[in-house]
TrEMBL record:
Family, as annotated: Belongs to the NOP14 family.
Protein name (database record): NOP14 nucleolar protein homolog (yeast)
Compartmental location: Nucleus, Nucleolus
Keyword Nucleus assigned: yes
Biased composition (Basic and acidic residues): 180-189, 263-298
Domain of life, per lineage: Eukaryota
GO annotation, biological process: maturation of SSU-rRNA
GO cellular component annotations of the record: Noc4p-Nop14p complex; small-subunit processome
Organism, as annotated: Cyclopterus lumpus
Record's function text: Involved in nucleolar processing of pre-18S ribosomal RNA. Has a role in the nuclear export of 40S pre-ribosomal subunit to the cytoplasm.
Keywords in alphabetical order: Nucleus, Ribosome biogenesis, rRNA processing
Keyword Isomerase: no
Pfam families, per the entry: Nop14
Taxonomic lineage of the native organism: Eukaryota, Metazoa, Chordata, Craniata, Vertebrata
Amino acid sequence: MGKVPKKRSLADKVRKTKTSTEIKNNPFEVKINRKKFEILGRKTKHDVGLPGVSRSKAINKRKETLLKEYKLKGKCGKFVDRRFGEYDTKMAPEDKILKRFSMERQRGHDKKDLYNLNEEEELTHYGQSLAEMEKFNDIVNSDDDDEPEEKGLLSAELTASHFGGGGLLRKKTSGDQQDGEGHHRAKSRQELIEELIQKSKQEKRERQVRKEEAQELTEKLDLEWKSIQTLMVKKTPRCDHVEEEKPKLEQYDMMVRELGFEMKAQPSEKLKTPEELAREEREKLHQLESDRLRRMMGDEGGESSQSQIHISADDIHDGFILDKDDKKTLSYQDGKWNVEEESEKDNDEEDDEKEGQSGEEEESEAEVEGEEDGDDEEEEEEEEDEEETSAKPSLSKEEMKAQQEAAKAELPYTFTAPETYDDLKDLLHGHTPDNQRLIVARTQKSNHASLAVGNKLRLQKLFGFLLEYIGELATRSPPELATTDKLIPELYSMCQMFPEAACKTMQSIFGDAGHSSEEVLEVKGHIAFPTLDMLIYLKVTALLFPTSDFRHPVTTPALLYISQALTKCPVRSLQDVTSGLVLCCLGVEYVTFSKRFLPELINFLSGTLHLAVRDKTSIGYTVVPPFRPSGKCSDLLVLSDSESCKSWSKKSLPLSVTQHLELRSDLDRDHHRLMCLSTCLDLVKRCCLLYKDLTSFACIFQPITTLLSKHLSAQTLPELLQELHSEILESIGGAPVTRCRLVLERKKPIPLKLLTPKIVEVLDYGKKRGSTREEREKERLKHKYKKEFKGALREIRKDTRFLAREKLSEVMNRDSERKRKVRELFGSLATQEGEWKALKRRKKK
């Protein structure tokens, strides 16, 4: 056997080239791929590589292929046959020709002949050809029927006689033609004029005859018509006409009538912004104030100016309204339209009008009553002002004086916002509660925040001043609670306008009260119940701010203040009991919507009931401070006489009692005790309804249940209190018990994690081998696809980098060429400028 020839590698081929000497001498051109270890029997490939040679070959190949495609991009040097159906063997030659012709016509019509009219088509107007209409061959008929149709036309003879024109414009008659054939003699001018006059006279006589004949025929026809007219008209007697019944209208006709009387849609005014409404309100108040001042000064100029209306000399008095409806009723009867005459329905219309007027009067009276009920005081005063202005312009001195006094007694309509609290007091001093509310409302409208820059700050100050004023009203003796009730709506409106300022003001009030109570508690060890002004502040807070929030910057501190007062304030008198019950009422009002549990409330109510127990030796419940199980102040609600229950009647607990309580006799004290006890039981009932869904409801109300069932018997109480007593026990006893015993959760214990190693049997080592031939072929194709895909991506990246380099070189070449041309231009310009300057210097010499 011969020796197996050795396989030549790429490096061997390169070495045999002309550059083999340079490559051998340059060790950096050759790359040796080292192996980690030698394997016997494995053929090695690519052990030595020449990256420089490979790179240069790839670049040259891209220059020959990719670069040429890039240079020829967008350039076309060949003819393309775009004829329709040229290479379609399925189409017939006739179809190809027709299709090409239609496409050619369509292309020309779309582009070239877009604004050109086709001369082959005939344009028409109302079915007549425009070409024929442009000849103007139509004869214009005269509007006058008495004149002949030829009037207005110029004959040839007339034209020739008046305008000349020789023989070309003369129209030859039949006689002239005959004479012309024989003798060729033309008529003279005088003959033509005489002939024309004769013709016109003859036409006039004929026209007069026709007119007289038509008039005679018309008169004859009128006489004949009058003779037969009486036979055609049949008059019915009046009695028969009255007895004839009118046909009843069908349902459709009735609906048509109803639609005619329906109210038509009126255009509504556009919605106005709050700023526009405030501006209109202020202008209205300013107008009313100017009218009041004018009446107070006794000036009548405004009234006379309003009453006088200027009437122009060109006025045609057409500004009237048609009250009468001229529409006739249209109905359908016996297959014919029936239009009722006004004479036939006079009686019915009069009856209907009377009934409608009476109904309208009743409706108007009802509307007036409703408007009077719903008007405010301002509208009433405006109506009075309008009535006064609509009075007679001439008034006597006494009437004028009375009018001035009435105007002085009225409230002004505009007020300036007070800058200090004393200004507000002076403004409201001496006025009734209704007038005080009206003053605050007008001040708010006159100084709306949208009308001026500083009005917002003034109204915010006014809110604080009003709160301070309400507190001062509560401290007076007796407290003016009616005025406070009137001012609360105005407080609410300003709170809605400025919620942040209102929040800060209320926070400052509760903060000061809390700090003062803490200081007193540190010094004395106990604090007194809140005064009436603080109770009113708490009530106002519940009205102005939401109490159902989980956390609120105003209501949360107020609720904490109530809880602290119910816990830290000792109960030493009936007045303290009354104050505590008022706080409990406020607490229930605060938690009604949120159903938040307030333990201080339940403790105070159970302690209040404990004050009514006579025997306190053996009690089965715990008394929580500020109450004591026994002692000096533990029998405040025990009745001194059991007979006082018979003369007691239930009344509401007044707020003024918290400030000053006067009980002169034992009977009055017992009645007040029963009143406090009734309020306490009522609050307990409300709390039962409020907290009945809690799981711990029975445990919370267990002390109250024990107290009511064992120690506070219902027999010693009035009938109303006995009913409350039984209802409370029924509601507490009927509540379902939802709690259950605590039991450990029964479940399978979780085992500990085992650390036993997981053994996996490996059958294939080394290369991935499948069990079958198909799987091995599949793996081989996947590997080949992956390899080719990576190679394609690599080549695409190299092509992209090559094109980027070429584009960059083109841009740089263009830039260098442009710079060269710019330098040449600058050089030439500099040369010209130098020559010009040299010439200029030479001229100066």
